[in-house]
Write a structure and sequence with these properties.
The structure holds two protein chains of two kinds. Chain A is mostly helical. Chain A has helices spanning about 5-25, 30-50, 80-100, 105, 110-125, 130-150, 160-185, 190-200, 205-220, 230-235, 240-265, 270-295, 300-320, 325-355, 370-385, 390-405, 410-435, 450-465, 470-480, and strands at about 60-65, 70-75. Chain A has a domain at about 265-485. Chain A has 19 helices and two strands. The longest helix of chain A has about 30 residues, at about 325-355. The longest helix of chain B is centred in the last third of the chain and has 100 residues, at about 545-645. In chain B, a hairpin with a 3-residue loop joins strand 1 (about 60-65) and strand 2 (about 70-75). The chains are: A mainly alpha, B mainly alpha. At the A-B interface, helix 12, helix 16, helix 17 and helix 19 of A face strand 1, helix 6, helix 7 and helix 26 of B.
Chain lengths: ~475, ~675
């Protein structure tokens, strides 16, 4: 099979599964299996494609709105392959977790349908070849996620949470749209491959404004302080498997957008002028998210705030605009996903076993749930970027980017935050699983499906930690596609 | 064959790591398999490591691709790291054997053995790494093993607190370490993590960057090696099982900092003030920790403070330029301190308490253990011909050579204190009446006895390895300096140099003072001036370091929460402001709607109405009026013509025609307007 066919085979299954959910209203279990199969297929195909991509580019393109020259296509290079494979993989693992966590008869077919539409549209975003297609899928991604938050949310007022989430991220999307329209107007094309070359002719002032608009728009999706206000509620009140997707996967779209549209498109002079403010925003997010996470007692909120902090790391790496820093941010797309999904899943295990959402209500569960405790510790060390876990490889690159850019003070502040990260993450896990128990005599270890999902994540993390070579090569290619091959 | 040799040099790293995985998997099936598997792997590994000793410094190295274009994974088996790797492997094996008995009745054996094996592998990886990046990788991995093993009894809040404290405190140092490593990476060209390349080209690194790296990496070393003021985690780490304390928190992991400063010495020694900083950190630590050890009442905490103090000696030696002395003392210390910990562990195991006030007369119940502890004390206090005597002497000799007399005087004072606290501990715990806690104590079982005996033999013999160590140690001088070859020593030369050197006099003075003070301790103590006694009390509280950090953390925590809260408040305010702005905007637009648009509309309406009225009026008055006028005119004219031609038919017909045509005209005009 040609790579083109494979590419379609990687993108399509999620959409097909989402469609099938429409016709299988009475058979939620079947829908679940179909979704699992679809995401598994997607993950497998995209994974193979990613590791065989190298420097090659596979592109398919069809006219969509021909009178405006807008097309609809799929493009696979090292960067999009890496991110898309990550998205599909995390979606697949998340669905394995669902097999233990959610009861199909309670949530119904549509739950799985929305999830697979959510994952599929994210893969689509990553593969986009056209500005308008990107925007279209970007907004499409918002619909299933909002639906999942609103209909299956666990908070007091899921409608309000969903509304807030929708409106604020939509504002971000509008900033992106404005910038896109402006770029289209200025360059006369919406083809992502062509704009970079044509933008160079514009004046620096215009370019800077465009870049700032894009930065702002993607920063909303990444929940960078002060655009983070939608995240703590949305991530902590969504049903747990959706929290996993929101926190561990959807944030990656913001990162991908920044990489593709800022680094890949704008001339380096413009980026250099934005470098320091971006890095400072990154450091603020790091510390803010970490301190907030330290102050929370609700487990899901801690995990949610930690996402803000982790996105601060990523933004810091991007903001350095150096090869090392950016490669760290790219790698962190996967590594943060592994650690954060594992953290949320551990929290889910505790909720599943005890029904408690608050740290004050749990303790000493390790005796009854040893494997969950082990995975929890792995997640905490993963967030802290401690070897031998995979996040080490991304975090040192991120910090290295800071030092490479020559901004030592900011970099030391960024590195110092890893102490805070280690502290809040360990504190949470230790209060959940160790120390004196607080009742919950009936707590049992999670069902095999949940443990399997967590084991896949934890083992991947350890494996990548010790054998980082294949991913490192892939990420180096990805960074080269952004013109930072240096 | 050469290839095979090179590959085997990676074995001390790879074998325990693989064994850890196998043990963890085996534990899933049957936990009874675990201890034996682990011990087999440990002993095998120790045998391989010992077999590597003759090849030390022979340039055996292993290289495999790890992060292409950034850093390979390399193993360099030289006298600096190789000796520590051998120590870790051999002690690790002994401690695994010891654990067979010591951990017999504990839960979580799989966790324990897998972590110990992981630790041994990672520790070897740390000291054998030829790249700063993989060094850091293993540096943190041993930290994680240490964390997990301190918190082994995870239902005990004290153990958990100790575990977190250890990890976080060393992590603070690690911030410095990674900052230093990355600074070095970017200030070499081409960028490299390779240690030997960095040391070789240290001269071409920008002085500012080199200084930054030197001091930040020192911070990392201080955290790992528990140097004041980052020492606070080590006493609390004593919540770990004693076997772990012996291996990780006495003999191996805590040496990593010393190893690091010794390894980087050729590059950093030229940074102004760096060597004296290292020396003073060491001196301050060795003295403060000796006081704290003297004041400690808990047997394990006393040993922990003693470890801090001895690590201070190693820093002191590095600072004075005595790399060989520091490494020699490191090896001695590893042996006698592991012995002290393991025999203390045996006592604690039997007595169930660590409080030295509740322990006495142990020798009558456990003679072998007592003998082992005594030999350890002789090593620690530097009695000839034990290993600690030779190595401490070499440390003093290095200080004399560096003409660092004030630090030397303080180090000698520290040695006197060491003599006092170690012997006092021995007399307190092992001599005198048998205490209640030890009434039913039994001598240790063979699995615990043999490791003690091996280590006890080591305290008398380990200094004989000076030949290998001095021959294979890489030169501390920067590469390219003339006469940089390391001065190789044979054991005989060592004895001769020691006995004829000025350090020997110091050792004699220390032993004499120590002996007198120990004998008359109670008398001296009761007559001690108030100041000295309060100094000891102060030392008992760890010189308030813990309390200071606690307060600092509280303050920092409050400041952090205030910062976050104010940021939150600012964001909420901004959001509210935005909301207000939006509602103000909407009310503004609605006002516009009401006042302007509606008003305008009304005005427009009125205008339109007026216009329509005007039009109606115009219609009526103009068109109708004109019609009527015309009609009237026609009528009038008809009348007139009728009057003119009264009674005449013709006149009436004409009048009718004129009237009709006027009507047609009017209709035509009307329709014409519409058209």
């Amino acid at each position: 099979m040609s790579r083109e066919t494979l590419l379609i085979g990687g993108v399509l299954p999620g959409f097909v599964a989402a469609l099938s959910a429409l016709f299988l209203k009475r058979a939620p279990k079947l829908t679940r299996t179909i979704t699992l199969g679809a995401l598994g297929l997607s993950a497998g195909v995209l994974g193979c494609l990613a590791f065989s991509t190298g420097a090659s580019v596979t592109k398919l393109s069809y006219p969509w709105i021909p009178s405006w020259g807008i097309s609809f296509g799929l493009k696979l290079d090292a960067l999009s392959a890496f991110v898309a494979a990550t998205v599909a993989f995390m979606g697949f693992v998340d669905l394995i977790y669902c097999f233990g966590y959610t009861k199909p008869e309670e949530v119904g077919s549509s739950f799985y349908g929305w999830i697979s539409l959510f994952v599929a549209s994210m893969i689509g975003v990553v593969m986009s070849t056209d500005l308008m297609q990107f925007y279209f899928l970007w907004e499409l991604m918002l619909i299933p996620s909002t639906a999942l938050i609103v209909y299956w949310g666990t908070g007091k007022n899921p409608e309000a949470t969903g509304f807030k989430y929708f409106i604020i991220t939509h504002v971000g999307a509008l900033m992106i749209l404005i910038s896109f329209l402006w770029i289209m107007n200025a360059t006369g094309t919406s083809d992502m491959d062509l704009i970079a070359g044509r933008l160079a002719a514009l004046s620096p002032g215009v370019l800077t404004t465009m870049a700032v608009l894009l930065l702002g728009g993607f920063a909303v999706k990444m929940a960078i302080v002060p655009f983070h206000i939608w995240l703590p509620d949305a991530h902590s009140e969504a049903p747990l498997p959706v929290s996993v997707l929101l926190s561990a996967v959807m944030m990656d779209m913001g990162i991908y957008g920044m990489l593709r549209f800022l680094l890949g498109v704008f001339p380096s002079g413009i980026l250099q002028s934005l470098s320091l403010p971006v890095m400072i925003f990154g450091v603020i997010s790091q510390w803010y998210g970490g301190l907030e996470a330290l102050g929370q007692t609700q487990m899901k909120r801690i995990a949610a705030y930690s996402t803000i902090s982790q996105m601060g790391y990523v933004l810091f790496g991007i903001g350095s605009f150096t090869r090392t820093g950016v490669s760290g941010s790219v790698l962190h797309i996967l590594n943060h996903g592994l650690a954060k999904a594992l953290l949320f899943m551990t929290v889910g295990s505790v909720i599943h076993a005890t029904g408690a959402h608050d740290l004050d209500e749990v303790g000493g569960l390790g005796r009854k749930m040893p494997l969950s405790a082990l995975f929890g510790i792995t997640a905490a060390f993963g967030l802290a970027g401690a070897p031998p876990l995979s996040s080490f490889h991304s975090e040192w690159r991120i910090f290295a980017g800071g030092f490479d850019s020559g901004r030592t003070t900011v970099s030391v502040m960024a590195v110092a935050c890893s102490v805070l990260t280690a502290y809040y993450a360990l504190r949470m896990i230790i209060r959940m699983f160790f120390g004196p128990g607080t009742g919950h005599e009936n707590a049992r270890e999670s069902p095999p499906a949940m443990l399997a999902a967590m084991a896949v994540l934890a083992l991947s993390s350890v494996l990548i930690g010790f054998v980082p070579r294949p991913l490192s090569v892939l990420v180096d290619y990805a960074v080269k596609t952004l013109g930072l091959g240096g | 064959m050469v290839n095979l040799m090179n590959t085997t040099s990676a074995l001390p790293v790879v074998l325990p790591l693989v064994a850890a995985v196998i043990v963890a998997l085996a534990g899933l099936f049957d936990e009874r398999l675990v201890p034996h598997l682990a011990v087999t792997a440990g002993v095998l590994n120790a045998a391989f490591a010992l077999a590597m000793v003759p090849r030390l410094g022979g340039g055996a190295s292993f290289r495999c691709s790890w992060l292409p274009g950034i850093s390979d994974f390399t193993v360099v088996f030289d006298g600096l790291g190789g000796i520590i790797a051998v120590i870790a492997s051999v002690l690790g094996a002994l401690i695994l054997v010891y654990s067979l008995r010591y951990m017999e009745h504990e839960h979580g054996k799989t966790r324990y053995y897998a972590l110990v094996l992981l630790f041994i592998g990672a520790m070897s990886g740390l000291v054998l790494s030829g790249s700063l990046l993989s060094l850091y990788f293993f540096w943190e991995t041993v930290g994680i093993c240490s964390f997990s093993l301190i918190g082994f009894h995870y239902e005990d809040p004290k153990a958990l607190k100790g575990a977190i404290k250890a990890f976080i405190t060393t992590r603070i140092g690690d911030v410095g370490l990674i900052a230093g490593i990355l600074t070095l990476y970017f200030s070499t060209s081409p960028h490299t993590f390779d240690i030997s390349t960095i040391l070789e080209h240290a001269g071409s690194i920008a002085p500012g960057a080199l200084a930054l790296a030197a001091y930040t990496m020192l911070l990392g070393a201080m955290g790992k090696s528990a140097q004041v003021p980052l020492h606070v985690w080590l006493p609390d780490a004593m919540e770990a099982p004693t076997s772990v304390s012996a291996l990780i928190h006495a003999a191996t992991m805590v040496n990593a900092g010393v190893y690091l400063v010794a390894r980087m010495y050729p590059a950093f020694s030229k940074v102004s003030g760096w060597t004296s900083t290292v020396m003073w950190v060491g001196v301050f630590t060795l003295l403060a920790a000796a006081f704290m050890a003297l004041a400690a009442k808990d047997l394990k905490r006393m040993l922990a403070y003693s470890t801090v103090s001895q690590l201070g000696y190693m820093f002191f030696a590095v600072g004075a330029g005595g790399i060989l002395a520091s490494q020699f003392h490191l090896a001695s210390h590893a042996v006698f301190k592991a012995l002290l910990f393991l025999s203390a562990g045996a006592i604690i195991h039997e007595a169930g308490t660590r409080n030295m006030d509740e322990l006495s007369g142990a020798r009558k119940r456990m003679p072998v253990t007592a003998m082992a502890f005594l030999l350890g004390v002789m090593g620690l206090s530097g009695v000839p011909p034990f290993n600690g005597f030779f190595s401490k002497d070499m440390v003093f000799a290095a200080a004399i050579e560096a003409r660092a007399y004030v630090p030397l005087a303080l180090a000698v004072l520290g040695a006197v204190l060491t003599f006092i606290y170690s012997w006092r501990a021995y007399f307190k715990v092992f001599e005198g009446e048998v205490s209640a806690s030890l009434r039913h104590a039994h001598e240790v079982q063979p699995a615990m006895k043999w490791p003690l005996l091996v280590l006890a033999a080591g305290t008398v013999t380990s200094w004989l390895l000076i030949g290998v160590q001095s021959r294979t140690l890489p030169s501390p001088e920067p590469v390219g300096v003339a006469g940089a070859a390391q001065h190789a020593l044979t054991p005989l030369e060592l004895v001769r140099e020691t006995l004829t050197g000025p350090g020997f006099v110091l050792s004699l003075i220390i032993m004499a003072c120590g002996y007198l003070l120990v004998r008359n301790y109670d008398r001296v103590f009761s007559q001690m001036p108030h100041f000295a006694r309060s100094l000891l009390n102060w030392a008992f509280d760890g010189f308030y370091f813990d309390r200071f950090y606690q307060n600092l953390l509280t303050v920092a925590g409050r400041a952090g929460s205030i910062a976050v809260a104010s940021l939150d408040a600012a964001i909420v305010l901004a959001a509210r402001g935005l909301q207000k702005a939006v509602s103000a905007g909407t009310s503004f637009t609605s006002a516009i709607d009401h006042k302007l648009i509606e008003g305008f509309g009304r005005l427009l309406g009125k205008l339109a109405f007026a216009a329509s009225r005007l039009a109606t009026f115009a219609d009526r008055s103009l068109i109708e009026g004109s019609g009527q006028f015309l009609w009237k005119t026609a009528e009038q004219s008809g009348k007139t013509t009728a009057e003119i031609d009264e009674g005449g038919l013709n006149a009436r017909v004409i009048a009718l025609v004129i009237g009709l045509s006027v009507v047609v005209l009017i209709v035509a005009v009307e329709t014409g307007v519409r058209m």
